[in-house]
Amino acid sequence: MARKTGNTHYWLSELGNRADAQQAMKGGAFAAWLVAAINIGIGAFIMFAAPDAARTFGVTGAAMIDGIIFGVIGISIWRYSTIGAWIGLAFFSLEKIYQWTTQPKSLVGLALAAAIWLAFVNAVRGANALRRFKREEAAPAITEAS
Fold it and tell me: For residue 88, is it within any domain?
């Protein structure tokens, strides 16, 4: 579990060691997989339900493509990819902006969207912390070799 240092909020806790940063990235991976499962489930329901379901919900079967993309993003975040964490945050943010502009009723899920968005932000923070730790470990080796 992430170690709480000076900050009292879990989502904004200091990532002071490698284990905390890795856990933050794992949380981002689980968030990506949750979004993938929801999108694939909704896409499958729309594709195999009554023909009026797509018009009623304002979603098409293409949500399955989003689900697959988020599944791949989740795998890359799980493997501690900085690029995967940034792409996950960007893709989720853009998807939510698009959803809220085209479907005003979708504001009902705002709390869940905010929690998932914070998990992606934390994954980006974890990725940046892991990069910082890797640079700090390499720095003494360079100075000792000089």
Answer: yes
C-alpha–C-alpha distance, residues 96 and 93, integer Å: 5
Determine the pLDDT at residue 144.
61
Residue 47 CA to residue 56 CA, distance in Å, equals 13
What separation in angstroms does the CA of 64 have from each of 27, 71, 79? 22, 10, 23
| 7 within a domain of the structure (yes/no) | no
In terms of DSSP H, where are the helices of the chain? Answer: 18-48, 53-57, 63-78, 82-102, 110-145
Count CB-CB contacts under 10 A for residue 12: 12
pTM of this structure: 0.80
Q: Are 96 and 141 in contact (CB under 8 A)?
A: no
Q: How many domains does the chain have?
A: 1
* Domain with 128 in it: 21-145
Side chain identity at 60, as an amino acid letter? T
Residue 132 lies in a domain: yes
On whether residue 2 sits in a domain, the answer given is no
pLDDT tens, residue by residue, 68-82: 999 999 999 999 999
- Residue where the block lists tokens 């489930």: 41
